[in-house]
Amino acid sequence: MKLDLILQTKIGREETLKKFLKLIRRSGKIQHPCSVRLHGVDREQYEKKFQDKASALQIDSCWVAPDLKLSNFKLFATDMDSTLLDLETLDEMATFIGKGGEVAKITALTMQGKIHNYAESLTARVKLMAGADASIVDRLIKSHIKPNPGAESLLAALKAAGIPTILVSGGFSCITNVVKERFGFTHVISNELEIADGKLTGRVTGPYGTPIIDGRGKISYVSAYALQHGIELSELITMGDGSNDIPMLEAAGMSVAWHAKPKVRPHAKQAFDFAPLSGLLSLFTDGQQYIPKLKTKPKGTAKTSSRKKASNSKVAALKASE
After folding, report:
1. Largest CA distance in the chain
2. Which of 182, 188, 199, 277 has the highest Cβ tally under 10 A?
């Protein structure tokens, strides 16, 4: 079976995509968020002549089966930090108390796979936070939770498609529960940050005192949820960026390493270096139909409203003078 080529880039860079299509002497309809599907492209020739040029222009090149449909999938699971959200929550909280550099260094080595034991890494990072006021959690939630591009439209589309969504994170429930409600996830799986007398104790556990959720823990919980709901792993879609996402990226029927570390990319079915999270929808032939339509006000609505107000004021004035 000859695969389709999906080209996509950052939102708003349609002109770059058009120029690249001219370069490779192809044409196609550019669709949301900023992608185009091409049929019958010779993969060997494309990768030899144009792959590097596409990357230089910040264009992702993904090869997919022409009959791949979103409707064939029944569950979606994503990592939170640096995938769904544009931050590492623990690193951010550490900066509030002057320990950002120490914690971020351990985080980076862990996500790159240079520290192999995630549980030990997380324990060490949290220990550095011992004694910090628990208000730093509220501060983070109030001002620093920012979704990565395409997150909200992707989740809205998955909801429209009737696909349950799981937020699976090595982070903490005091944050993931808020994110779950804010973005409408079906279910959440994460660790527990211990707080006592308004202070962080420097200790962390898995849910309800179980072992800390690491890469194996993530896929174990997701697999259990799938089994409980009669869903095969071949019907699972996963997204992640770090080494602790590798097991669930490998296990899923469709997976995307999103702006991921080099070690992570080979373990996913697809890799996005530039496309937004909603670029996932472009991989499916039916993905576009689930994208929520933007509601726009008819032109002149505001002016009409102003004229009506002015007219009503004149009528009221005339009545008052009678």
Report:
1. 85
2. 277
Q: Are strands 165-172 and 75-78 parallel, antiparallel or unpaired?
A: parallel
Instruction: Give this prediction's pTM.
Output: 0.88
Q: Contact, 66 vs 39, CB < 8 A?
A: yes
HSE value, Cβ hemisphere, 13 Å, CA-based, for 151: 24
Catalytic residues: 79, 81
Please give the Cα distance from 119 to 108 (Å, whole number). Answer: 14
Q: Write the CA distances from 224 to 13, 219, 220, integer angstroms.
A: 40, 8, 6
What phi, psi does 297 have (nearest 5°)?
Answer: -75, 140
Q: Of 255, 81, 65, nearest to 175 (Cα)?
A: 81
Strands 165-172 and 187-196 turn out to be parallel
Helices (H), 97-214: 100-111, 118-127, 135-143, 151-160, 173-183
Give CA–CA dist 257/255, Å, rounded.
7
